[in-house]
Amino acid sequence: MNKSSATFLLLLATLSSSCLAEDKDKPAATPEKTMSKPQVTLSDEEWKKRLTEEQYRVTRTAGTERPFGKIYEEFEKQGEGTYYCVCCGAELFTSKEKFHSGCGWPSFYDASTAKNVLERPDHSHGMIRVETLCKRCGAHLGHVFDGESVSAATPTKRRFCINGVALHYVPKGGEPPKLLELGSADVEKKKEAVAKEAGVPVSKP
Ligand SMILES: [Zn+2]
Question: What is the mean pLDDT of each run of 10 residues along the chain (205 residues)?
Fold first, then answer.
């Protein structure tokens, strides 16, 4: 290995530990333990059908995308617009709160006024961090860091370090994504309730 690639790897490792760590071995997030049950609950199989492999890995198993990837490059070029949850379509961030932190992942200094970003303590990998999740569906988004030098010039002095793959960008004036409604389990429950009310027997699969 030559010196410049070794330096690059070292830089990458430093950034990874300060921004987002590789969460490969972490079990799937279980948001219902610390947050009220997400409004949208799909089975793993259903999420897999709806999402790409990378979207599933990051959002449903608390994974981390590679820093300085293609999505990040696109993010840096994007103009005014809104960022929605790739899983359920909830509004999460807007270009107003976006700032350049140089950490290799999309950065915002605050969530959008829609307030769909939930924060909870994360003690994985021997670090004390605050994980950010979509309030509606429990998707893992990334982490939020307070009082760093890179966010010192922002109004909140916070850096929401977000996986770009968890976001669905819609340029200003564009059509927002359709909100994913009730999860299959809830739909089944509703069907049962309606059938019961109508006095019709429910056939169980
Ligand atoms: Zn969501």
Answer: 52 46 45 62 93 98 97 97 97 97 97 97 93 97 96 97 98 95 63 74 56
Query: How remote is the CA of residue 92 from the centroid of ligand 1, in Å?
Result: 8
- Measured in Å, residue 65 CA sits from the centre of ligand 1 at 17
Burial-class residue 181 by CB neighbours within 10 Å (0-12, 13-18, 19+).
Answer: exposed
Residues 187, 193, 197, 198, CA torsion sign: positive
Taking the model in full, what pTM does it have? Answer: 0.74
Q: How far is the CA of 43 from the centre of ligand 1 (A)?
A: 14
Contacts of 155 (CB under 8 A, 6+ apart): 109, 110
Q: Do residues 140 and 27 lie in contact, with contact meaning Cβ atoms separated by under 8 Å?
A: no
User: What are the two backbone dihedrals, phi and then psi, of residue 115, each rounded to the nearest 5 degrees?
Assistant: 55, 50
Q: 161 an active-site residue?
A: yes
10 Å CB burial of residue 80 (0-12, 13-18, 19+) is exposed
Assigned fold of 36-172? 2.170.150
Nearest to 67 by CA among 99, 21, 131, 133: 21
